């Protein structure tokens, strides 16, 4: 199957959502044990992969489903609703595997993605900022560096890492076997404990140039229009969906807490203040979600027309992610205030609150990104363009 110029809307989308729904009870039940383990079991990870979550973002010409941005957004949202750590793990594996498949040429594609339709493909985890050093040698690079937060590494076969080429300063992204790096046993955090987001390092590892690509490329070697978004914009899709899934689950959990306590002596959930704050949180989450989907709808129209997103669209999709995260945090504060002991005893409310607090620290939702969005939108630097998360 060859790629087509327009944006692909996958007919597999409803079936994948159905398979996620079927896994919902299992994800809910396994979320606590996965936290204790520090990662999801291979059975859970395999069930999610078999549901098509990573395949959803892989290029069609390699055997993937190649979902549209809004299809990917809703899919991650659905997984994250059941288990925030599972949603985070899968969206990380998804985007790093998909961008590797899209931007590497035929040599690497034959090596890493020999039969996607039958489940024979590499899974990549790693980190795309704070690049390592790449010394040019015949046919490739000698790579050294230390990277952080490799979400999903427990399930990965290969590593995705940013590198900077010595002499030229060019930023590239590599794919190499996980066996060529050393994993640091340092994943000890407040939330998202089941993502196994360990740090890792290597020294003087040879990586062929065929298994690297320019970090800022928007020209795919495989697949269609969605891959013209580039690595950072594709990453924004998963993080946005994650925030909405987590926010929705927390509001639904609070609703269950309120139903159990209403009518009891001095129940805070029977007050007008609770009802007003619940309604405010509901309105905020729905409004943020509607706006994010509107932003991505506009991006889809642009991609379908064969064009690259404008600077305004690049700004808005970053702002929509930032706003989704801050809105979910507002929801979390409301839930924490009114859920009482459910917010501090071990259980779904407490776990989702910790996962939200941890996930909101991701660099894509940082205050600096918000400031850069305001700089461009306010007209302070109309000539500036986005390079990763910075205005250049």
From TrEMBL:
Pfam families: Acyl-CoA_dh_2 (PF08028). SUPFAM superfamilies: Acyl-CoA dehydrogenase C-terminal domain-like, Acyl-CoA dehydrogenase NM domain-like. Residues 238-365 form the Acyl-CoA dehydrogenase C-terminal domain. InterPro entries: Acyl-CoA_DH_C, Acyl-CoA_Oxase/DH_mid-dom_sf, AcylCo_DH-like_C, AcylCoA_DH/ox_N_sf, AcylCoA_DH/oxidase_NM_dom_sf. Transmembrane segments: none annotated. Keywords: Oxidoreductase. The keyword Oxidoreductase applies. This is Acyl-CoA dehydrogenase. The lineage of its organism: Bacteria, Bacillati, Actinomycetota, Actinomycetes, Kitasatosporales.
């Amino acid at each position: 199957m060859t790629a087509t110029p327009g944006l692909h809307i996958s007919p597999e989308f409803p079936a994948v959502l159905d398979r996620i729904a079927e896994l919902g009870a299992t994800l809910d039940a396994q979320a606590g044990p996965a936290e204790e383990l520090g990662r999801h079991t291979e059975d859970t990870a395999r069930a999610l992969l078999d549901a098509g979550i990573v395949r959803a973002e892989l290029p069609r010409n390699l055997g993937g489903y190649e979902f549209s941005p809004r299809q990917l957004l809703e899919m991650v949202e659905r997984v994250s609703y059941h288990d925030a750590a599972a949603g985070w793990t899968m969206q990380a594996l998804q985007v790093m595997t998909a961008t590797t498949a899209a931007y590497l040429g035929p040599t690497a594609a034959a090596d890493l993605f020999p039969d996607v339709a039958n489940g024979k493909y590499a899974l990549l985890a790693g980190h795309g900022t704070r690049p390592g050093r790449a010394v040019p040698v015949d046919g490739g690079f000698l790579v050294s560096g230390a990277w952080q937060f490799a979400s999903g590494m427990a399930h990965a076969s290969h590593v995705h890492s940013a590198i900077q080429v010595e002499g030229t300063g060019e930023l590239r992204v590599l794919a190499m076997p996980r066996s060529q790096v050393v994993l640091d046993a340092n994943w000890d955090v407040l939330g998202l404990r089941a993502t196994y987001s360990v740090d890792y390092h290597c020294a003087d590892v040879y990586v062929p140039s065929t298994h690297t690509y320019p970090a800022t490329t928007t020209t795919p070697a495989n697949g269609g229009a969605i891959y013209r978004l580039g690595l950072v914009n594709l990453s924004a899709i998963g993080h946005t969906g994650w925030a909405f899934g987590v926010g929705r689950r927390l509001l639904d959990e609070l609703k269950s807490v309120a139903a159990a306590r209403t009518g009891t002596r001095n129940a805070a959930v029977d007050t007008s203040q609770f009802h007003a704050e619940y309604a405010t949180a509901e309105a905020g989450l729905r409004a943020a979600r509607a706006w994010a989907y509107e932003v991505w709808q506009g991006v889809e129209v642009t991609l379908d027309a064969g064009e690259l997103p404008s600077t305004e669209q690049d700004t808005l999709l970053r702002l929509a992610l930032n706003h989704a995260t801050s809105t979910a945090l507002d929801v979390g504060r409301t839930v924490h205030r009114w859920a009482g002991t459910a917010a501090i005893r071990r259980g779904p409310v407490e776990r989702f609150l910790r996962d939200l607090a941890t996930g909101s620290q991701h660099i894509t939702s940082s205050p600096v990104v918000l400031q850069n969005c305001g700089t461009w939108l306010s007209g302070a630097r109309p000539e500036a363009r986005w390079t990763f998360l910075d205005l250049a």
